Amino acid sequence: MFRDAALIAGKDLRLEWRSRIAINQVAPFALLILILFAFALDPDHGVLLKATPGLFWIAVLFSSLLAIQRAFTIESADGNRDALRLSGLDPAGIFLGKFAAITVQLLALEALLLAGVALLYSARLDGFPLLLLTCVVATAGIAAAGTLYGVLAAGLRVRETLLPLLLLPVLAPVLLGSTRAFEAAIGGNPSEGWPWLGLLAIFALVYIGSGAAAFGPLLEES
């Protein structure tokens, strides 16, 4: 299973590196969200600082939709999805590979966005261990849920509009928990953020487990 996951993750990451979709489209889109909010809230810098955690994760969630759709769009051309089903790869391994590739892309994006909020919003990134763990665990939850719902919507003609409708309500706990954890870290009270990190970990584990179990039947129906 893990060998199959490594094959899928390596294949997806190589395709993204060659196409530069994440660099040329997803990253500028995420930075544009931060810049627009910086201009909109700049007259009241106090409000901008208070809103920094929420704005950061809103940018991540919207950008994740593009990354997830891209992860399954590359399988739709030339019968690649049928070839994937017939390849003999473990469905759980395919899920974990897709999940790992999306996670790596989102973590790279979040590193860029953290630099963006520090520069544009003058936010002090205190409580760095909590910030780092929150990014890793929350991203795992987003990627796991996105991979599961991405394959569910992949075979439909309306997948571009259906995926946000399915995924964004499910990711509400991630937005809540990650924002609260970031608020605690940036506000200098990291002890208040660790319980929210626990909520994010539960969410991620549930979706990783359910995704590994359900990905095979969903792939067959897509």
Walk me through this protein's architecture.
This protein has helices at 2-19, 21-41, 45-73, 80-85, 91-120, 128-154, 159-170, 172-186, 194-221. It has 222 residues and is mainly alpha-helical. Helices cover 84% and strands 0% of the residues. It has nine helices and no strands. α2 (21-41) packs antiparallel against α3 (45-73). The radius of gyration is 18 Å and the shape is globular. It has one domain.
Brief rundown of the structure:
The protein is mainly alpha-helical and 222 residues long.
Per DSSP, what share of the residues sits in E-state strands of 2 or more residues?
A: under 5%
Order of helices and strands: HHHHHHHHH
Counting DSSP H or I runs of 4 or more residues, the number of helices is 9
- Approximately how much helix is present in the residues? over 70%
- Counted up, domains total 1
Summarize model confidence as the mean pLDDT.
85
How would you sum up the global shape? globular
Low-confidence stretches: none
Q: The biggest beta sheet, please?
A: none
Termini distance? 21 Å
Structural category: mainly alpha
Notable traits:
9 helices; 84% helix; 0% strand; globular
Strand-helix topology:
Elements: H1 2-19, H2 21-41, H3 45-73, H4 80-85, H5 91-120, H6 128-154, H7 159-170, H8 172-186, H9 194-221
Helix pairs in contact: 1-5, 2-3, 2-5, 3-5, 3-6, 3-8, 5-6, 5-9, 6-7, 6-8, 6-9, 8-9
